[in-house]
Amino acid sequence: MDNTDIALRAEGICFAYRDKEWVLRDISLSIPRGKATMIMGPSGSGKTTLMKVLAGILDPQRGRVEVLNHEIGKRTRRSLYSLIGYIPQQLGLVRNLTSLENVLMGALGRCGHGRVMLGLFPHHEIEQAQAALDLMGISDKSSEKVFRLSGGQRQRVAIARTLLQRPRVVLADEFVSDLDLDLASEILRLMRQVAEREQMTFIANMHEPQLVREFADQVLLLDHGELVRGLPRHGLQGQPSAEVFQ
Ligand SMILES: Nc1ncnc2c1ncn2[C@@H]1O[C@H](COP(=O)(O)OP(=O)(O)OP(=O)(O)O)[C@@H](O)[C@H]1O
Ligand SMILES: [Mg+2]
Prior knowledge:
By secondary structure, the protein is an alpha/beta fold. The chain has 2 domains: 1-83 and 168-193 and 201-240, P-loop containing nucleotide triphosphate hydrolases (Rossmann fold, 3-Layer(aba) Sandwich), CATH 3.40.50; 93-166, no CATH class. Helices cover 31% and strands 24% of the residues. It contains 8 helices and 10 strands. The chain has helices spanning 47-54, 77-81, 99-104, 108-111, 123-135, 151-165, 181-198, 209-215; strands at 6-16, 22-32, 36-40, 62-67, 70-71, 84-87, 169-172, 201-205, 218-223, 226-229. It has a 6-stranded mixed β-sheet, with helices on both faces. Strands 2-1-4-5 form a 4-stranded antiparallel β-sheet, covered by helices on one side. The radius of gyration is 18 Å and the shape is globular. Adenosine-5'-triphosphate is lined by residues 17, 23, 41, 43-49, 89.
């Protein structure tokens, strides 16, 4: 693959939370630009840890990560943050703010961090935040405080916030875990439309095989911190994901 076709590249990543207790072991991968890559693996296999390393939140002890051809490091981290939308497994919403205010957090990178109060966001940003909630089918909840929402509604607020950020790469940890299958499928379909339109790269941890089959362009399987299947060199790249589950 040409460098311009790759959104994210990791080489020889090793990560341990504690001295030499390796949670990620020598992980190398390439994520194609503008496509959906899904990461599967048993609980505790290191999926969240890998997401955080790829998003530049955790520093690996060994190896390197490149996002859009820039290595993540001390100097580049800040500028890369605006390109990367990260949706944590716990969603990272502010419970006491409304849905709309949470979505507007996605615009902070453009509007300045002093503007946390709703009234200080430019009108067009508020309109776009409303539109993102509408796209997620929860515009009626825009002035509801997040702690009053269901798990699935919160998940959609978190997705809308990330869309407002207009990232080049979205890393989502358990993207649609609290949604029923039909709604999850509908939201993934919408995400794919947005991703195609904006050439946005989408990477998600996902445990529902049906959704992976339906939406993944590439599947990576993690087991005990090792990538066991799905590296491009194993020939998965660009092939139907159903092959993985045979
Ligand atoms: N902050 C931490 N400190 C120490 N160990 C951790 C920490 N976070 C995770 N671990 C350990 O690292 C391993 C991988 O955890 P991780 O959260 O990456 O797994 P996961 O694949 O995302 O699991 P799940 O599917 O349950 O979310 C686990 O053994 C876990 O106990
Ligand atoms: Mg996890």
